[in-house]
Amino acid sequence: MADDAGLQLYGFWRSMAAYRVRVALNLKGLKASEIALNLDAGEQFAPEYLALNPEGAVPALVEPGHPPITQSMAILEYLEEAYPQAPLLPADPHGRARVRSLAAVIVSDTHPLMVPRVRAYLNEHAGFDEAALRDWSIHWGVRGLAVIEARLARDAATGVYCHGDQVTFADICLTNLGMAMRAAKIDMSAYPTVARIIAACEQLEAFQRANPRLQLGAP
Predict the structure, then answer these.
(1) Is 65 helix (H, G, I), strand (E, B) or coil?
(2) What is the pTM of this model?
(3) Which residues contact 30 (CB under 8 A, 6 or more apart)?
(4) Is the domain defined by 7-87 classed in CATH 3.40.30.10?
């Protein structure tokens, strides 16, 4: 793997969204120089970074001569278009829509409810203690798993991975959620199709190298 077009990735070792981008880069044989921001220490709110991403969130992908790209799925879409080798979307329109829909269950309907800024607001303004915050995150994470399980288990388009036998955006997002739920000690046996697909993904080097515990800044 060589540096590609001087790509730089701003991330945090524990960020679910940054994980998605790392996996996509690995699957496409691309390398980005990563700049680690310690979200726990508030480094994402430094003026220099806010100039790149006013939201103060990761990831952000920077390519020389172009504005930063933020939001993990926008970055994945960019990588798919700019670097079409090892495609992460099916060739047919219906298949592409199915993959994007599965991914959206996680990145639009599930993950946003579990991010640190939401948890911080609930703690500061709604009186949630640590137990309540954990219950909140598990509720939405388990709901996401159940929705994906129901869709995958009854759809003939499901194969070794979420869509046939090709890794797609959906697998990247699903594996990400599965890791978070396992860390919360959720029994994945209730979601056998999900668990099988995650296990298949985790056999791939691209996913193994993106493991949060192997990233810059991890304890």
Answers:
(1) coil
(2) 0.95
(3) 1, 4, 7, 79, 83
(4) yes
- Give me the tens of pLDDT residue by residue for the chain, a chain 219 residues long: 444 668 999 999 999 999 999 999 999 999 999 999 999 999 999 999 999 999 999 999 999 999 999 999 999 999 999 999 999 999 999 999 999 999 999 999 999 999 999 999 999 999 999 999 999 999 999 999 999 999 999 999 999 999 999 999 999 999 999 999 999 999 999 999 999 999 999 999 999 999 999 999 999
What's 93-206's CATH class? Answer: mainly alpha
Among 151, 163, 160, CA closest to 202: 160
First to last CA, the chain: 25
Q: Tokens 């639009």, residue?
A: 108
